[in-house]
Specification:
about 325 residues; 9 helices; 6 strands
C-alpha cells in the first residue's frame, strides 16, 4: 500500500513537471514570435496606397447596380484618373526644374582678401597708373544676351498656359468622341434557330450589345418572351459579351475570325483575280441566338466554331486560299 502511494506521488510530480515545461515552452515560443514580428518590415510597407481604378469601381458598385449607373461611375473614374495623371506629370516637371536650379556651381570669392591687399598696398606704394596720372579703365560688366533661347527655363505662366491647353484638347477630344457615339448606324443581323431570318435595326454607335439585343427582341414575336440575358450576339464566329459597345469595335478596328467586327453591313469580296497576298474585304451578318439553342447544338457546325471574344487576342488576317 505504501509503495502504491509513493508511485502515485511520483506520477503527480511528473505530471506537474511536464505541465510546467509545456508552459515554459509556450512562453518562449510566444516571445520568439513577438521578437520576429518586431524585426519584420511592416506588412503594408510595399502595398500601394491608392487602389487601381478597377478596384475602386468594384468597391463602389457592390451589389445590384444598374448598367447606366455602372457606366456613368466608370466614366467619372476614368476622367478623374486622367486629371490626376496630368497633375502628377506637372508636379514631376516642376520638381525636376527646381532640382536643376539648385545644382548651380558655387563660385569662390576673394573680394575681402583683395580689399585687404589693396588697402595694404596703397599705404606702402601706389599703382603705376596713379603715379603717371592716368585713369584706370573700368572693367566691362557681363550683360544678358537677348538673342539666347530661354524656352527651356522654368516659366510658371507658360506652364500654366500649356496645362490649360492640354485640358482644353482633352475636353475637345471627349466631346468629339461623345458626338461620334451619338451617330446612328444600321446593323444587319440574322436570327438563327438552325436557319437564318435576316433583318436590320438602327442603333447608335455608343449602344451596348444588350441594348441592340433588346431592339432585336422586339422584331421577332418568338423572342419577346426571352430576356436579353438569354440571347447571344455572334459576329464573325465570335460571341460578343453584352457590355461591349459598337464604338469599341469601330474605334479599335477590331477583327474577328472570319472578318472585321467594325463593319455591320453585309457585302462580299468581289475581285477578278484571287490574290492570296491581299486581305479579303467582306462582312457577314451577325447572328442573334438563344442561349438554350447554343447549349444544345454547340458541338455541331456552325456553333462548334464559335468562341468568346477576347480583346487581347490577335485573330489574324483573312486571305483567299
Amino acid at each position: 500500500m505504501a509503495t502504491n502511494n509513493a508511485e502515485g506521488r511520483r506520477e503527480d510530480a511528473f505530471i506537474k513537471q511536464r505541465a510546467q515545461n509545456r508552459e515554459e515552452y509556450e512562453r518562449q515560443k510566444q516571445t520568439l514570435i513577438n521578437e520576429t514580428e518586431k524585426s519584420r518590415p511592416s506588412v503594408n510597407k510595399f502595398v500601394g496606397q491608392n487602389d487601381s481604378m478597377e478596384e475602386t469601381l468594384k468597391n463602389q458598385t457592390i451589389g445590384l447596380v444598374r448598367l447606366e449607373d455602372f457606366q456613368q461611375r466608370r466614366k467619372e473614374l476614368e476622367e478623374a484618373k486622367a486629371r490626376e495623371a496630368a497633375r502628377t506629370n506637372e508636379l514631376k516637371d516642376e520638381t525636376k526644374k527646381v532640382k536643376k536650379r539648385k545644382k548651380t556651381k558655387a563660385t569662390l570669392s576673394f573680394a575681402m582678401d583683395d580689399e585687404g591687399d589693396v588697402e595694404g598696398d596703397t599705404s606702402s606704394r601706389q599703382s603705376p597708373e596713379v603715379q603717371t596720372g592716368e585713369q584706370p579703365s573700368k572693367r566691362a560688366k557681363f550683360r544678358k544676351n537677348p538673342n539666347v533661347d530661354t524656352s527651356f527655363l522654368p516659366d510658371r505662366e507658360r506652364e500654366e498656359a500649356e496645362r490649360k491647353e492640354r485640358e482644353r484638347l482633352r475636353q475637345e477630344w471627349i466631346r468629339r468622341q461623345e458626338e461620334l457615339k451619338q451617330e446612328e448606324i444600321e446593323i444587319t443581323y440574322s436570327y438563327w434557330d438552325g436557319s437564318g431570318h435576316r433583318k436590320s435595326v438602327v442603333c447608335k454607335k455608343g449602344d451596348t450589345i444588350s441594348a441592340f439585343l433588346e431592339k432585336c427582341r422586339q422584331q421577332f414575336p418568338e423572342l419577346r418572351g426571352v430576356s436579353v440575358d438569354n440571347l447571344m450576339y455572334i459576329k464573325e464566329d465570335l460571341i460578343i459579351p453584352h457590355h461591349h459597345t459598337f464604338y469599341d469595335f469601330i474605334i479599335n478596328k477590331a477583327r474577328g475570325k472570319s472578318g472585321p467586327l467594325f463593319n455591320f453591313d453585309v457585302h462580299d469580296d468581289v475581285r477578278l483575280l484571287a490574290d492570296a497576298t491581299k486581305e479579303k474585304d467582306e462582312s457577314h451578318a451577325g447572328k442573334v441566338v438563344e442561349r438554350s439553342w447554343y447549349q444544345r447544338f454547340k458541338h455541331i457546325f456552325p456553333a462548334s466554331r464559335w468562341e468568346i471574344y477576347d480583346p487581347e487576342k490577335e485573330y489574324g488576317k483573312y486571305t483567299i486560299a
